[in-house]
Amino acid sequence: QVQLVESGGGSVQAGASLRLSCVASGYNVSGYCMGWFRQPPGKEREGVAFINADLVTTYVDSVKGRFTISRDKAKNTLYLQMNSLKVEDSAMYYCAARSSWYCNPIRDVAFPSWGQGTQVTVSS
Fold this sequence. Notes:
The protein is mostly beta strands. The protein contains no helices and 11 strands. It has strands at about 5, 10-15, 20-25, 35-40, 45-50, 55-60, 65-70, 75-80, 90-100, 115, 120-124. The strands form 2 sheets. Strands 2, 4, 5, 6, 9, 10 and 11 form a 7-stranded mixed sheet that branches. Strands 1-3-8-7 form a 4-stranded antiparallel sheet, with no helix packed on it. Strand 7 (about 65-70) and strand 8 (about 75-80) form a beta hairpin. The N and C termini lie far apart (about 40 Å).
């Protein structure tokens, strides 16, 4: 089982930037699909951004142009650069991984490995 540990969350004002990191251990995840989900309080978890082993990326419409997902295969690390943060981006952000070269279907139940989450709070 892949272990995932996120970091980089925090409390910021609207318009600020944050960079989330997710370090994987236990397995070389260079051939894995990896992604970020988020769950605001009282709401369902949603997929935010995903990157496959070919470095092809997918984003939910609400973050396109503001968030960038990337990975450093040598460091077994996933990143999420979040710019122009909005209040509605506030949520617990989770890193997830699956042992599949490609990411489709992008559903949380398709990802067996999850981190513990890192909180992002954006105030107006």
